[in-house]
Here is the input.
Amino acid sequence: MQVSEIAGDITKDIYTDYFARCSGSESLMLYIEDRERGRMMTEVFRLLLEEDLQTQFGYLCFETKTHVAYGVEPEMYDNLFAAVANTVKQALGPMWSAEIDKAWKNRISALGQAIRSASAVHA
Ligand code: HEM
Here is the structure.
């Protein structure tokens, strides 16, 4: 089931969770409007759903390079993905199962690894 069917658009909740857990991230995004924040989250969802992350290597090289220029620190990615997972978890309530938890952990870990590999290209 789609989380949006239960909780609507959770983008704002994700950013609230994210800023609370990741010091420095809120000030980086202070003047970034909702539309751009939404666009960024659309890309994050797309990556989380991507079956073969290797196909995204070029895109991740590009985005991690631009994001270094924005002042984004490496650990901010892990915090962002943890915020997405936790917000979905809160939205699903009792529907969040051990199986779903494991699938999210695997997914986040794979995406974090892909981002570290892409970042290493321009380190
Ligand atoms: C996989 C993770 C991420 C993806 C796919 C992503 C994607 C995007 C996209 C598509 C944009 C629109 C402009 C552009 O293409 O650069 C954007 C903007 C931005 N992102 Fe991310 N982002 C991610 C993680 C992060 C993290 C962890 C931060 C930390 C705070 C961050 C901070 C920003 C900022 C500050 C902007 C606005 C830059 C500006 O317009 O001045 N992003 N992001």
The chain has a mean pLDDT of 95.
